[in-house]
Structures are given as C-alpha cells and as structure tokens.
Design goal:
Distance between the termini: 40 Å
Shape: elongated
Number of helices: 4
Largest sheet: none
Order of helices and strands: HHHH
Number of strands: 0
Length: 124
C-alpha cells in the first residue's frame, strides 16, 4: 500500500473512532451523525448494525441482567457494550471506505494506462 494511503486512511479511521467514542461518552446524537455522514456509503450498514446490535445486546443481556436501572436509565454494562459496538462498526465502515477508495483509484489508473497508446511503435 502506498504510504500516503496508509497515513491518510489511518488518520481517517482514527477520526471516525474519535467521533464514535465522543458520541458514546456524551450520549448525544451529533457525533454519531457526523460519523455516519463521514463514512458514507458504508456508514449506512454500520448504522443498521448499531441499531440491530443494540437490540440484540439488550435482548440477550436482558436474560442475565437488568436492562434498566432505578429512574429508567440504562445500566452501565449496556452503555459500555453499545458504545464499544458503535466504535467498532463505524471504524470498520471507515476502513472499508479507505479500501473502496484505494481500489477505485487503482482501477482508474489501470484503465488510463490501458487507454494510452504505446509511443514509438511502428505500425505495419
């Protein structure tokens, strides 16, 4: 992998992870929304995974532990688990976007190279 892709891609994934962590710590939607927009197109499946994963954690975890605390809040185990899932899913979406972009650029470069005639060859 080209060094620029590696550094830029890693920085992009770290920024997305930071947004997801911020969303989990503050329990606000704005950082998650920013992560979603910045990870499009793969942010859409990540968002579906966030909601589906939360429902699974709450459903399965509810068999073994309480899913609410006094006052109607969320228990710590569910907050931590859902935040970790969100971070992993959005960072995976960001890493997938880096791979998609790199492959798109490679394919484009190959098609340009294939369409350029080889100079210096005689015809006939």
């Amino acid at each position: 992998m080209h060094r620029g892709w590696l550094i830029g891609g890693a920085a992009y994934v770290v920024v997305i992870g930071g947004l997801a962590v911020t969303g989990g710590l503050t329990r606000t939607a704005q950082p998650y929304l920013a992560a979603l927009v910045l990870t499009l197109p793969l942010g859409v499946p990540a968002l579906l995974g966030v909601y589906g994963g939360y429902a699974l954690m709450e459903g399965i975890g509810g068999l073994f532990a309480a899913t609410t605390v006094n006052g109607g809040g969320e228990p710590h185990w569910l907050s931590i688990a859902s935040t970790a899932l969100n971070v992993v899913l959005f960072m995976a979406a960001a890493a997938g976007n880096v791979l998609l972009a790199r492959n798109f650029c490679r394919a484009r470069r190959r098609s340009r190279a294939a369409s350029v005639p080889v100079s210096g060859r005689s015809r006939g």
